[in-house]
Design a protein that fits this description.
This protein is an alpha+beta fold. It is built from 7 helices and 10 strands. The protein has 2 domains: about 160 residues; about 170 residues, Glucose Permease (Domain IIA), CATH 2.70.70. Strands 1, 2, 3, 4, 5, 6, 7, 8, 9 and 10 form a 10-stranded antiparallel sheet that branches. The two termini are about 55 Å apart.
């Protein structure tokens, strides 16, 4: 009785946790949508860039999912092919034994058994008529039952092969369709980026724009922080990120292009994070466990992911080509959260990475392993 009560209590706790998680995710999603509405872009080209790169992210995410599905189904089909060969081999090996049993039944004038085995009925139907095998020895009956079972497995294997082939064909068509959409979206993005570059008529205008975008990112973080505090969300017990400071893995494999504190293109402004050069599509990984509090397009940061690690420490991952995890998701160190890209209007692919403590930028070199 105590064991049953314990199980019921655990089930209640699980239901309560799931309900709380759903509440948190809905709250974070609503918060993100509200912040986006408040930051509605007025520049026509910037707005077009945001729309196009958001569509690109979804298309890339669909392509990744379809590619994985195709790979999984190809593996499944290969296993089914192997199973078909194995079963056909087993049945071929037993052909002589089955012929012997048929001859035995014929000699004993057991017409029901002969008619049954030669009837062409499905093997699974034959199993319902095993009473005809009463004339056989136990060993012979076992052989016939095994033959029926293997014949049934072979038929099921062949049926499943046909189903998987049909699914594969549909997925390949969908993949081609999404690839065409991706190419069209990339062409549109290239034109928008060219238009944006043409709009940057003076260095002073560029400096002002960059300064405003830095301030808006800081304001975004402040807004999210304030809303999270107001929501009074519980943070689960995880490894204290301060305890692993200096030992975190890099979010992506690549070459460091711009260091924290360096001047940005002679503008007088300074980098508040790292720009890590990497190829389009490379996996971007969470450096530590936490909860995703933002995952959307944001200004010159492009497709941006922000993770709250607790203790006031946040990490930011920008310029991605695809976002693979949704706001509200819990992640662990090493989980893939995005794909490297050049969103935000950039011509060179790479990941922009920041660490913030209580909203203030930190030098990533102090947090990541060397």
């Amino acid at each position: 009785m105590l064991s049953l009560l314990s199980v019921l209590c655990q089930a209640d706790d699980l239901d309560a946790s799931q309900t709380e998680l759903e509440r948190v995710n809905k709250a974070l999603t609503a918060l993100q949508a509200e912040l986006k509405r408040n930051e509605k872009e007025t520049n026509t080209q910037r707005a077009a860039l945001e729309t196009t790169e958001t569509q690109l992210s979804q298309t890339q995410r669909d392509l990744t999912r379809l590619a994985k599905n195709i790979s999984d189904h190809q593996t499944q089909l290969a296993a089914l092919d192997e199973q078909e060969v194995r079963l056909k081999g087993l049945l071929a090996e037993k052909a002589d034994d089955i012929k012997f049993i048929l001859r035995l039944a014929y000699k004993q004038n057991n017409q029901p058994l002969i008619k049954l085995l030669l009837s062409g009925e499905r093997p699974e139907d034959l199993s319902r008529h095993l009473y005809y095998f009463s004339i056989l020895t136990q060993n012979q009956q076992t052989q016939v039952e095994a033959w029926i079972s293997e014949q049934a497995q072979l038929n099921e294997t062949i049926t499943e092969q046909k189903r998987v082939v049909e699914v594969l064909e549909k997925e390949r068509v969908a993949l081609d369709d999404r690839q065409q959409q991706l190419n069209a979206q990339k062409n549109k993005r290239a034109q928008i980026v060219a238009n944006l570059q043409a709009q940057a008529r003076s260095t002073q205008a560029t400096i002002q724009e960059k300064q405003q975008e830095k301030e808006k990112l800081t304001q975004l973080i402040a807004d999210i922080t304030a809303r999270l505090e107001a929501m009074n969300l519980d943070f689960p017990e995880v490894i204290d990120i301060s305890g692993v400071k200096g030992g975190l893995n890099w979010p992506v494999e690549g070459k460091l292009m711009n260091r924290y504190g360096a001047v940005i293109d002679d503008t007088g402004l300074r980098w508040e994070g790292w720009l890590i050069s990497a190829n389009d599509g490379q996996p971007v990984k969470a450096v530590h466990g936490g909860r995703i509090v933002f995952a959307d397009f944001f200004k010159s940061n492009g497709l941006l992911v922000i993770i709250d690690h607790g203790d006031g420490v946040w990490t930011l991952y920008g310029r991605n080509q695809a976002l693979l995890r949704d706001v509200g998701s819990w992640v662990e160190a090493g989980d893939v959260i995005a794909e490297v890209g050049r969103s935000g209007g950039y011509s060179q692919s790479g990941l922009y990475f920041e660490v913030r403590k209580n909203g203030e930028p930190q030098n990533p070199a102090s947090w990541l392993s060397r």
